[in-house]
Amino acid sequence: MDIKDGKKEKQNMNRYNQNNDKDLLESMTGLTDEEKEELERKTQEIVEKVDTESRTRTYSGIWKKVITIYSLIWVVFQLYFTTLGSMDAITLRAYHATFLMIYCFMLYPMTKSENRNRKFLPIIDIILITTTIFTFGYLILNYQRIALTGGFLTDFEIALGIIAIILVFLAAKRAAGGLVWVAAIFMAYNFLGKYIPGSLGHAGFTLPRISGHMFWSSQGLLGAGIGVSATYIFVFVLFGAFLNHSGFTRFINDVSLTLVGRQPGGPAKVATVVSGLMGMINGSAIANVATTGTITIPLMIDNGYSKDFSGGVVAAAATGGQFLPPVMGAVAFLMAEIVGVPYATVALAATVPAVLYYFGILMSVHFEAKRIGLKGLRKENIPAVLPIIKKDGHLLAPLITLLAIMFMGYTPLYACVISIFVTIIACNLRKHTRMGLKTIIVAAEEGARGAIGVGVSCVAIGVIVGTVSLTGLGLKFGYLMLKVVGPGELVKCGIMVAIMSTILGMGVPGIAAYVIITAVAVPVMVEVGADLIPAHLFCLMYASLSNITPPVALSAYVSSGIAGGDFVKTGLCSCLVGLSGFIIPFFFLVNPILLIGQAPVGTGILEIIIAIVGATIGVFFLSAATQRRYLRNNSIVESIICLIIAILMIDPSTTTDIVGLVIVAGLTSYQLYMKRREKASIA
Predict the structure, then answer these.
(1) Whole-structure pTM over 0.85, yes or no?
(2) d(C-alpha 43, C-alpha 512), whole Å
């Protein structure tokens, strides 16, 4: 290294060290501390309008300490019984549901207008908590006895089941938002099916039968949904909370800046990378927009992007985290359990579609930057790589540990618990990231709180899944679809499922929407001819993308509020930026060659590589079409040609690839010729 380079490196180190306690991205937004506080307050108000999970009570005095102690007890209980301890599945789920619902009644207000600053717990919630403890406690103590009697229930036990269902609806109304109305419709179907004509009708079920099926069996409230919440979801949400308090977010921000910050549209590319990585861990698109968007959206606007485009990029990037391996917002583990395959199989299968989705977003922001003439961030605002690695590289230890232990063959739960402890140890290797006892307690409480919304949703999902299994709704729905869709008509079937996924996923947490949709749609897709994992991934991607699909598009709503843009335009921008996510699932549904490990039997490695390279080129030109820019700004005809190229290249067929490449050569030659003419005319 020469003297000049050494001096430059020292200057970079000095500048970086000046930001020890301050996120570098925050320092570049151009906002004062007061403006940042106002933006965060405004963001919280926007999020609370659409996300019930964000509307929580704030306690002072003794109840504040009670909730902290309660959180720690729950965390210790969950970590012990998901690793070292031994407990049968139904009992663990019942304990988990009890913890969830008690916390829900303590933390979430009964009405929107309630004063959320409290010193004491309301009497009504004390009654609900007491009833919850008695109801689920009775199940825990008596479930084995009832199971041994063949499920015979007394009138008292039937009544307890009805009370439990009511309690779940009350909790879901507070913490799960619109999901409670979906569950209510399914519950009503149990009673009113006898009035529905045609194949969707049924004879109707009595209260005792519904009570027994929903509460006293493993197919209702205590089914697979709450089972995943009691294991994977809770532990990974807790892991995300510890990562957040370790300084990992700052580290990801800084690494993203060094990678793409100086490129055209650098801030938007940083926003894409950060939102994707954080969304992968927390699994909530809305929460991801609210946390990363308050920093990245002002940064993008300050760089020259429009408010609507800035909001659209962050919304699309935050949404994709729900299907981005390796964590996939914990959905990977749920999918693995439902399908009956190892976690690694699911994660590998989802890799190419997820990477292509984010590649499409990155190219969209690149083309948009080139189209409107934006530059990257100034060199002095970009930290050097070496100081970042030296200062915060130890924060990668938890993620490396997580992946290493899982790929060594241990369970994801074991790997995640170990990674939580590695997070604490790694943070204490350096003074500026040290986690004291107070920080550990705060992270544990934040993790417990973060698990409530999704957990209560998983309990409420039990009503939906229980209804499907009790009434045979899945088979009835499949019969109707098969009347319209014949064997092998996967595209037509995919269109119908995509519409259903988008509707059922509106306003519902991604993992909840996925469970609802797969219970109804996947059997039909398999019957038509789809493979199991491609069908599940198709439903997951469309359930997730409902967060950016108008007319609801909750992620776009939050990001437009932060940006101060128009909701409809922001939603449209997010759809265009994330368009590859809507298109690619149809191609891997028909031919799963793009899903690693799921290619048709007899497919060679070279064919797979060609298909992936072709799809990458296709996504590149899809972004060029939506942003109206390739080598120069596109005309309408040129954008249409880019769209045609995209479809031809994403399709894993040799013929379409050859045709697509020929058109690419023609378009490239034409645009190069036009650029030379434009330069010559200017000269």
Answers:
(1) no
(2) 24
